[in-house]
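Our platform keeps sequence and structure together, in a single record for each protein. Nothing more is needed to write down the fold, since each code stands for a local backbone conformation. An entry from our holdings is shown next, in its original layout:
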Amino acid sequence: MIKNASIYMLLGCAVALLVRCNPIDKNPSVVQVQLHEADWSDGLEAYEATWPDKFGIGKSADKSFIAKWDIDVRPDGKGLPKGEGRAKNGAAVYQNKCASCHGVNGYEGPEDKLVTDSTGRNTIGNYWPYATTIFDYVRRAMPFEAPGSLTDQEVYDITAYLLYLNGIIEEEFVITEKTLPQVEMPAKKRYVLDDRRGGPEIR
């Protein structure tokens, strides 16, 4: 009996020793990891070396293509094409290509009001500081479903009509590349040039 107990004790010790030595139960060693803060340009030079001379995407922009997109008009009138516009002619163009979005009179909607009404909401008549912006925006972005489709003549006439509806010019006034920049918008006095110096460039 004592002999058997000794055997069991020896077996128990052996099992305990094996369990203790099992690497599964050992605490994992603490691995020291050296952090490296990657820079955005890491490997860039090697990657650029794999680039072909040309990717074969797109096509060269010729002068006619550039001229089609280079149509910005500045407050001083630079960029305006030669031409003239009259409010009476613009009325017909407006009803045909603008009224469905902006209303018969320019303020019924459903889209933005163009003509100042009793609500006092911002419109081109009481918020925009430069008359030339009307020509610039209409030519490049209107009508909504076909931006850029209006002729310069149509844009000149619509511009004159919108200025007339807002009470800024008389119906007979003829706008041209010379007279449009001279039109004084009511909201211009609400804007001031940021002439501060010494701080961030963008404020």
Notes: The CA atoms of residues 38 and 44 lie 12 Å apart. The longest helix spans residues 2-21. The chain has seven helices and two strands.
